[in-house]
Amino acid sequence: QVQLVESGGGSVQAGGSLRLSCVVSGYIDSTYSLGWYRQAPAGKWREGVAILDSDGTTTYIHSVKGRFAISQDNAKNTLYLQMNSLKPEDTATYYCAANSIVAGQAALSLEPDFGYWGQGTQVTVSS
Predict the structure, then answer these.
(1) How far is CA 61 from each of CA 5, 36, 96, 98, rounded to the nearest angstrom?
(2) Phi, psi of 61 (to 5 degrees)
(3) Do residues 17 and 123 make contact, with C-beta atoms less than 8 angstroms apart?
(4) Would 79 disulfide with which of 6, 10, 22, 42, CB 3.0-4.6 Å?
(5) Which pLDDT does position 28 carry in this prediction?
């Protein structure tokens, strides 16, 4: 059974940094795309933030380009999201996900009903 467990969230002031981790257990095919998504407080939709495809290609939403970096440590079965220069609008619950259906830009719009998802970790950025 595949499980994804996020950690590393917390509260920081604007301009600060956090690194999120997502440990993947169980078998994930090497063709899967991995990604980070976030959902702001109730009423907002879940948006894709960063995608790492199986060929190493990365995709980011415009608002985090140059500030966030997605990476993977295969030896540790862990996906990371390094977040720098954090802004109050980055406040959200962050989820990691793995899917074999879509990749790249399309994976940013992955629906929660598809793929494997973690339980989320909260990131709060104060001004």
Answers:
(1) 23, 11, 15, 17
(2) -75, 155
(3) no
(4) 22
(5) 86
Tell me the pLDDT tens digit for each residue of 20-65.
999 999 988 888 999 999 999 766 789 999 999 999 999 999 999 9
User: Between vectors from CA 99 to CA 61 and to CA 81, what angle results, nearest 5°?
Assistant: 45
Q: Which helix (H) or strand (E) holds 105?
A: helix 104-107
Q: CA 39, 95, 18, 9 torsion: positive or negative?
A: positive
Question: Rounded to whole angstroms, how far apart are CA atoms 38 and 92?
Answer: 6
Q: How far apart are CA 121 and CA 103, in angstroms?
A: 23
The helix (H) or strand (E) run that includes residue 106 is helix 104-107
How does residue 87 score in pLDDT terms, banded at 50, 70 and 90? very high
Which class for 124: exposed (0-12), middle (13-18), buried (19 or more C-beta within 10 A)?
middle
Q: What is 17-53 written as a DSSP string?
A: -EEEEEEEES---TT-EEEEEEE-STTPPEEEEEEE-
Dist. CA 110–CA 25, nearest whole Å:
21
